[in-house]
Amino acid sequence: MSQSRDLRTLRRMFPRMTSDRLVKAIERGQTIKAIAADEQKRLIAENDQLSETIAELEKRIETLTAERQQIDADEAERTAPAARAKARGNNPIAFASGNRPNLVDTHSLRGQWKALVADLVSQGMTRSKAVSQANRAYPELREHAIAEANSRRSRRHG
After folding, report:
1. Beta-carbon neighbour count of residue 110 at 10 Å?
2. Which domain of life is it from (predicted)?
3. Are the beta carbons of 100 and 122 closer than 8 angstroms?
C-alpha cells in the first residue's frame, strides 16, 4: 500500500519522468528521496543544456538580424536613385522645373513648326488637333517648313 502511494507521489512530483526510469529506480531499491534527488539532478542538467541552446540561438538570431539589416541597407543604397526618381513621378527624366525641355531642333523652319506642334500636344491636345491649330495660326510657317523639307528631299534624291 505504501509503495502505490509512493508511486503516485513520484508521478505527481515528476510528471515527465518516464515509466522506465521509475521502474529501474525501484528495482535498484532506491528510496523516494534518492529517486527525487536523481530526477532533480537530471532536470537541472536538462535545464542547463536548454539554457545553453537558447543562448546559442539568441546569438544566432542577433547575427542573422545584423546580417539582414546590412543586406537591407545595401539594397536601399543600391535602389535609392531609382526610388528617388520614382518618388518624383513616373517620368523617365525628371526636371527641376517640372517641364520637359523641348528637344526638337528649332534652328530650321521645319524644326520650329515641329516644336510648336509638340508644345500644343504637351498642353493636352491630340496631335491631329495640334497640327490643325498650328497650321491655322501660322500658315506661312507651315508653308516654309514644307518647302524646306522638300528642298532637303530633292537634294538627297537629286
Report:
1. 20
2. Bacteria
3. yes
pLDDT tens per residue across span 123-149: 888 989 988 888 888 888 888 878 877
Closest C-alpha to 30, from 22, 20, 42, 40: 22
Contacts of 85 (CB under 8 A, 6+ apart): 94
- Interior CA angle at 11 toward 6 and 15, to 5°? 160
Amino acid (1-letter code) at residue 16? R
Q: How big is the chain, counted in residues?
A: 158
Residue 121 grid coordinates: 500636344
Q: Name the residue among 112, 122, 105, 118 with its Cα closest to residue 146.
A: 112
Radius of gyration of the chain (CA): 44
> What does the pLDDT look like over 40-94, one tens digit per residue?
898 899 999 999 999 999 999 999 999 999 988 888 787 776 666 566 555 455 4
The residue assigned the cell 491649330 is 133
Residue 63: what pLDDT? 94
Residue 101 φ then ψ, to 5°: -70, 155
Q: What is the residue extent of each domain of the chain?
A: 2-63, 109-157
